[in-house]
Design goal:
- With 191 residues, the protein is an alpha/beta fold.
- It has one domain: Rossmann fold (3-Layer(aba) Sandwich), CATH 3.40.50.150.
- Helices cover 28% and strands 27% of the residues.
- It is built from five helices and eight strands.
- An eight-stranded mixed β-sheet has the order 3-2-1-4-5-8-7-6.
- It starts with 23 loop residues before the first helix and ends in a 5-residue tail after the last strand.
- The relative contact order is 0.15.
């Protein structure tokens, strides 16, 4: 699999054999929606797998991408991909990435404790477990989003996500074969 655009465009990245990677067409559509320039934005990649979404965000200039992956082998592949791309610190010696090997739901709680917020949260949980709604409920409970944050959930067509959960309302859904990207915003916030 390759990075699609930005600083690391056309660079190959490793894929763990145990995951279902986000297809290129879906990654392209997500970043077409968000905008090609991610400069200064923070990106939380929950259930990261290979880290392709967060790496794409870094390639497009994200200030920081935080990768959260419970599986040890996948977390190791994310770190190998960071090394493969030779992603180093910015001029201010801050690294544009953080890899957390932990449960995504527990990490949401920990991020609130640390008073961290993100501009974009991408959630790609295992399909068969229908975890998208649970993730959305947790994000509503814990304050790691701000009024202009985007929450994007990749899920199977048969997993129906609600029109609204707490502060969040469905902004748009995009269908790609048997998968859907559901995009949420905080109600009454400006797109």
């Amino acid at each position: 699999m390759k990075i699609l655009a930005g600083k690391y465009k056309n660079h190959n990245i490793y894929m763990p054999v145990t995951i279902r990677p986000t297809q290129n067409i879906v990654r392209k559509a997500v970043f077409d929606f968000l905008g090609q320039d991610m400069t200064g934005l923070t990106f939380l990649d929950l259930f990261s797998g290979s880290g392709a979404m967060g790496l794409e965000a870094i390639s497009r200039g994200a200030q920081k991408a935080v990768f959260v992956e419970k599986d040890h082998l996948c977390a190791k592949v994310i770190e190998e991909n960071i090394t493969l791309l030779k992603i180093g610190p910015y001029e201010n010696y801050q690294y544009p990435y953080e890899v957390i090997q932990a449960d995504s739901f527990g990490t949401i709680r920990e991020m609130e404790r640390q008073k961290r917020q993100f501009d974009i949260i991408y959630i790609d949980p295992p399909y068969e477990k229908e975890l998208g709604k649970k993730a959305l409920k947790l994000l509503d409970t814990y304050g790691i989003v701000h009024p202009n944050s985007w929450v994007m959930i990749e899920h199977q067509k048969r997993e129906i996500l609600p029109e609204s959960v707490g502060r969040f309302s469905l902004f748009r859904e995009k269908k790609y074969g048997n998968k859907i990207i559901s995009i949420y915003k905080i109600q009454n916030s400006k797109p």
